[in-house]
Amino acid sequence: MSGSLAYEEMQVSEPPQPTKRPHVTESHSWVWLALAAVLLLFANGVDTIPLAAWLAPFFLLRFVRTQSLKIGLPVAYVVLIATFPFQFRGMVPIPGIGYYIFLLLNGIMLVLPYLVDRLLARRFTGFIATLVFPAAWAAVEYLSSFMGYGSWGSAAYAEYGNLPLLQLLSVTGLWGITFLIGWVASTCNMLWEEGLSSPGARHGAWVCFGTIVAALLLGGLRLALFPPNSQTVRVASISDRNVGPELSLPVKIRMFEGKATSEDMVAIRPWASAIDEDLLARAEREMQAGAKIVFWGEADAKLLKEDEAAFIARGQALAAKYNAYFGMAVGVLSMGKPRPLENKLVLIQPNGKVAWEYSKAHPVPGFEDKMQVLSDGKLRSLDTPYGRLSSVICFDADFPQLLAQGGALGADIMLVPSNDWQEIDPWHTQMASFRAIEQGFNLIRHTSHGLAAAYDYQGRQLAAMDHFRTADYALASEVPTRGVRTIYSRLGDWFAWVCIAMLIVLTIQSLRRTRA
After folding, report:
1. 488 occurs within a structural domain
2. What is the dihedral of CA 223, 460, 457, 315, to 10 degrees?
């Protein structure tokens, strides 16, 4: 909607001569930079303060706009890449010099919206000028979500917990939240530059803040008037435990690389067998307690390829005995192969038959990506008395476009077996909850070595278990058996494309004015 309004206003009010607001250097410019740098430390990641996510871009934009291009952009770039390691400390598993190369490249994506604003925004006035920065930010985030780390780093994730605002995800996806954060920054800068006496500034501010108030009110109404009201099903999810002799790190590395020696196998077999037997026993315990859907964390059952069929058969017998759906998350290893690991979820039906085998579509770049067997990237679904089931695995949930398959399939419950580490606990699971709101399914992310949690399709946390604060490593949750089809699940990334189209139109208008 904002894109069409912007286009109509440009067509109606375009002056015959080019308009360009003059560049003004402020004496307090470096103060704004200092404030931005401090706020950026808490604007995303480990120590997120949601308000900081709104204030940091405002002050950084103020600095860039009040400095010359050759000073403002390089300094902003340095500040963005300097604060990123603090924001996401321990979260980016890239060793050595590769991490610094990643920071330099990622910094380009982070500073790009500020560059676009610096080049285009001053050529427009009022409401139109406020759209440049948020449109550029949302467009850059959208395009970068197709890269190796998906939606990691999106500004929208800083708003976790603000459920009225997050209902916007069901309409626009992440990009609408990012747009609003950027729009506040550019609107406040316009008010700063033009003052409240400017009719254009007042009009732009009314539209911006009115839109945010409307989003909050409508989101609150959705939560209050249309909560999930279907029956629930008991879902149990389980993490592996160290119940036998532990493997040394060198042996584990050789095992996952498919290079285990005969001496290694002497240690690997009893280690894996103890874990697998414990997982089966605890799955049976949960089925006896009434769970109708049971699954394990990512690759919790470690199997050699030659043992896979017999182990899956035991799971089939268990599911048939207790009339339950059993998600066996297994890591199957084939020694001597270039890609030795099959990281998959085998879903067993109550009749004992295998419904599907889903392999992880997005292994984490680096070590995991090199060792895992390639996936076809297609989600599966199964109609059950408890709704339509589907699944992805861990890092897959950071890619909104992949989870859109779940929305298109009409999934009611999404199973997400996962495996994290302490530095990304609980952040990674909180990210996954955004997919539930976007696509309209209920989601259970069971995370070994992290936060396991269940969410309904409006983002409410139904149950949670933190690996580092429990001894049982099992989560039982009552999950609604019906989801909804959201606007976003039907129309996809329409809002991101509106932002891209808006930038193209504004760039063309800017070039026309320059030539004039």
Report:
1. no
2. -160
Q: Which of 349, 290, 291, 284 is nearest to 318 (CA)?
A: 284
310 plus 423 within the same structural domain = yes
What 3-state DSSP class applies to 342?
A: strand
According to the model, what pLDDT value does residue 24 have? 55
Domain assignment present for residue 134? The answer is yes
Q: If DSSP states are collapsed to H, E and C, what string results for 33-51? A: HHHHHHHHCCCCCCCCCHH
Higher pLDDT, 115 or 255: 115
Looking at the fold, whether 122 and 49 belong to one and the same domain comes out as yes
Please state the domain count of the chain: 2
The confidence score (pLDDT) of residue 201 equals 86
The CATH number of the domain holding residue 338 is 3.60.110.10
Residues 266 and 214 in one domain: no
Residue 27's pLDDT band (boundaries 50, 70, 90)?
low
Give the residue-averaged pLDDT of 161-168. Answer: 98
Residue 242's DSSP bridge partners are none
Cα angle for residues 50, 51, 57 (degrees, 5° grid): 105
Q: Is the peptide bond before 50 cis (omega within 30 degrees of 0)?
A: no
- pLDDT of 427 over the 60 cut: yes
3-state secondary structure at position 216: helix
Q: Is a pLDDT exceeding 50 seen at residue 4? A: no
Question: What tokens appear for 261 in the block?
Answer: 């020696």
Average pLDDT score over residue span 433-450 = 98
Rg (CA), the chain: 25
The set of residues, in sequence order, having a beta carbon less than 8 Å from that of 179 and lying 6+ positions away, is 134, 135, 137, 138, 172, 495, 499
φ, ψ (nearest 5 deg) of residue 439: -100, -10
Let me know if residue 105 belongs to a domain: yes
Left, alpha or beta for 211 (phi > 0: left; psi -120 to 50: alpha)? alpha
3-class state of residue 245 by DSSP: coil
**How much is the pLDDT for 44?**
96
Whether residues 352 and 366 share a domain: the answer is yes
Domain hosting 65: range is: 2-226+493-515
What's residue 252's pLDDT? 87
Give me the residues paired with residue 147 across strands.
none
Indicate if the pLDDT at residue 134 is higher than 70.
Answer: yes
Residue 487 lies in a domain: no
Tell whether 213 and 323 lie within a shared domain: no
Q: Is 334 helix (H, G, I), strand (E, B) or coil?
A: coil
| Residue bearing the bigger pLDDT, 50 or 11 | 50
Strand pairing category for 381-384 and 387-391? antiparallel
Peptide bond preceding 426 in cis form (omega within 30 of 0): yes
pLDDT of residue 396: 97
Report, as an integer, the average pLDDT of 423-450: 97
Beta strands 232-238 and 293-296, pairing class: parallel
